[in-house]
Amino acid sequence: MLFCPTCANILIISAEASGFNKWACQTCPYEFPITKQMTSRTRLQRKEVDDVLGGEAMWKDVDQTDGMCASLSCGSDWNV
After folding, report:
1. Which of 8, 35, 60, 78 lies 20 to 30 A from 68 at CA?
2. 68, part of any domain
3. Does residue 28 sit within a domain?
4. Distance between CA atoms of 38 and 21, rounded to whole angstroms?
5. Which parts of the sequence belong to the DNA-directed RNA polymerase II subunit RPB9-like zinc ribbon domain (predicted)?
6. Which residues have CB under 8 Å from 47's CB, separation 6+?
C-alpha cells in the first residue's frame, strides 16, 4: 500500500489513456507514473493469544455450589 504524500489517503492504480499505469489519489490531483515493477514486503509480528475467558484468575472468586455425581460409583464431585 502506498499513501499520498499530499493528503495521506491511499493511492490506487489507475490506467492512463496511453496504456501505462500510474499511482493516483482519489481526493487530490496527485499522480505518479509507474515505470518499473515495484515490490515491498513487511513482516508483522504475531500477537500472543490470550485466554478467551480470562484464564484461571477469572474463576478465583466466583460463587460455587458443591454437588455429587449422579452415579455414586464414579466418586467425583463437581462445582456449579
Report:
1. 60
2. no
3. yes
4. 12
5. 2-53
6. none
- Say how many Å lie between the first and final Cα of the chain, rounded: 52
In this prediction the pTM is 0.48
Torsion of CA 51, 53, 58, 61, to 10 degrees: -160
The range of the structural domain enclosing residue 31 comes to: 1-35
Asked, for residue 2, whether it belongs to a domain, the answer is yes
Residue 28: which CATH number? 2.20.25.10
AA letter at 23: W
10: which DSSP letter?
B
Q: Find the largest Cα–Cα distance for the chain.
A: 85
16-38 pLDDT, tens per residue? Answer: 888 889 999 999 999 999 999 98
Number of domains in the chain: 1
